[in-house]
Structures are given as C-alpha cells and as structure tokens.
Amino acid sequence: MVSWRFLVKRLLLLVPVLLGVATFVFAMLHLAPGDPARLIAGRRASAEFVQQVENELGLARPLYVQYVDFLTDVATLDFGQSYTVRRGEEVLDILTARFPVTLELALLGQLAGIVLGIPLGILSAVKQDTITDHLTRIGALTGISVPIFWSGPLLIMLFGVYFGWLPTFGRVATRFDYPEVTNMVLVDTAIAGNADAFVSALLHMILPVMTIGIYSMALLSRMMRSSMLEVIRQDYMRTARAKGQGSRILVLKHGFRNAFIPVITVIGIQFGTLLGGAILTETVFSINGIGTLLVEAINSSDYPIVQATVLVFALLFTLVNLGVDLTYSYLDPRIDQ
C-alpha cells in the first residue's frame, strides 16, 4: 500500500521541476535566432509594421516582464494564441485537439511492446543458452538496432506497397465521417457505432503501432531477460526450487514480481518519450500528433505553441515517473521508507 507521505513528497517535487523547465524553455526561445514578428508581418513588411506587430504580441516589453507574465499565464493554463501555425487560435485548443492523437499511438505502441516483450524476455531467461534464447536475443538486438526512420518506410514498402494489405498514411479512410469526441480515432469510431470506420482506423494504426512496438518490444525483452536471470540466481529462488516448488509458479509468482521492478523504469521512460511525441513515426505515416506540431512550431518560431508543448511534455513525463515511483512502492514496500 502506498503511503500518503510518499505520494505528497513526490507531488511536491513536481513544482521545482516544472518551474525549471518553464524557465529553461522561455530563455532558450528568446535567445534563439528568429523573429516571430517578422514572420507574421512578412519578409517585405516595413520596420514600422514589424514594430507594431511586436507591440501587439508583447515582444517589445522587457524580458523579465514577459517572463513573469508567462509564468502567470501558465499557472492559469492560458498559453495565449498561435503566432503562425494556426494564427489567432488558442494554443490550449490546438493542444487539446492534437495530443489525443499522440496519446492513442503511444498507448497502442507501448501496449504492443509490453505484451510481446515481457513474455519473450521471461522465456529467453528460462531457456537460457538454448535455440529459443539465441533467436530471441537476435530478434531483440535487431529491433533495437534498426532506427524508426528506416523500419517505418520498410514496413510501408512491404505491407503497403508490395503486398497491398495495409494503408500507409493517415488515421482513417477519407470516405468515413464521424463525430470527433475524443480525437482518438478508434474510440470515436467505436462511439459512433460505425463498424466500417472502426475497421479502417484499426488497419491504419497497425503499421505505426508495429513501428513503435518493434523497438519497444526489443528493449523490454532484453531488460526482462537480464532482470529475470539475476532473480533466478538468488538464494530464495534456489530454496523454493529445493522445496519442490513447480517451475511455472516459481518463475511467475516468486521471480516475476522482483524481476519486473527494473523493467518498470524502462516502460516509464519509453512511454514518457512516446507521449512527448513519436515525431519520426508521426512524420513517416502522416499522423498529425503533438510531435509534428512541435516541429512545425519550432520551424515557424511560434513561441506560444513551443512553450506550451514542451511544458506539456515535461508535465506528462513527470507524471509518468510519479506512476513508476508509486508502482515501485507497491511492488516493494521498502522503497516507501
């Protein structure tokens, strides 16, 4: 059972982390080259018009005033309006629309990695130095070594172009119309009760989920194998085996719980990274998630979107780490001390 003291302590640690991230992002954006006022006004705009745009955006004020106003707005979830990407639209509305796209992709990709990687890691450890172990390790090393910008197009060429089995871009066929309730295409099509649209969305998700899942599965299987091998060699495992404990119960009941603790860290880091935007995957498969939004905002010097997106990344990453800490405390109560 997780204690309230442990939970409150972890929550309080989020405040300086987010404050530090906000300060760093604000400083880096204002020190980086590029003038958003010039981009908005246009290359041929006069200096007077550019100055007018700067005054309207508040960029002509002293830097410390902009910083205080920025922190105040962030505390009230007021991220301002987009400069260039979606000019005049509230940044919070843009993030609300784009984040569920990435969340859905991250959840499915991480789930695929866990469902495949954990059992393969356990099997590889139990069958150490056998053909099964060697094949599993070769597959894991291959999955880790192959970059997404190569595996994604390879899957597209194989399953989309050569065999023609799966769609290669987008989230659902353009002929389907459904109400966007959550902006998660699988959820929205299911809510609408449109079976054909749901199947189309499911087929569109297979290749990007495979691209993410291959790397996630490979890393998790390697970590699970190493952790399980270390646990299997412990004295309490040998004692349980000497008492006649069955192999399946020995591994799953006594070994898995302790071996899974280090793997949780990897799962948390992976999921936090995916929530931060699976930029390459979204780009390869033309999925307009929060990762591609950040790249577009950086290229166009859209300060409000960049600041808000990075802060959302930081918040999500810290919340994922909090979840990992709470899981640690549940699996091993000694950590809560």
| Percent of residues in helices | over 70%
If you compute it from the alpha carbons, what radius of gyration comes out, rounded to the nearest whole angstrom? Answer: 24 Å
**Tally of contiguous helical segments:** 14
Largest sheet: none
Question: Unreliable stretches, pLDDT < 50, 5 or more residues?
Answer: none
Morphology: globular
The H-and-E topology, N to C, reads as HHHHHHHHHHHHHH
Averaged pLDDT: 80
- Class by alpha and beta content: mainly alpha
Q: What is the CA–CA distance across the termini? A: 12 Å
Beta-strand residue fraction = under 5%
List the helices and strands and how they pair.
Layout: H1 4-31, H2 36-41, H3 47-57, H4 63-75, H5 91-126, H6 131-145, H7 148-162, H8 185-192, H9 195-232, H10 235-242, H11 247-275, H12 279-284, H13 290-299, H14 303-331
Helix pairs in contact: 1-14, 5-6, 5-9, 5-11, 5-14, 6-9, 7-9, 8-9, 9-11, 11-14, 13-14
Describe this entry's structure for a reader.
- The protein is mainly alpha-helical and 337 residues long.
- The protein has 14 helices and no strands.
- The mean pLDDT is 80.
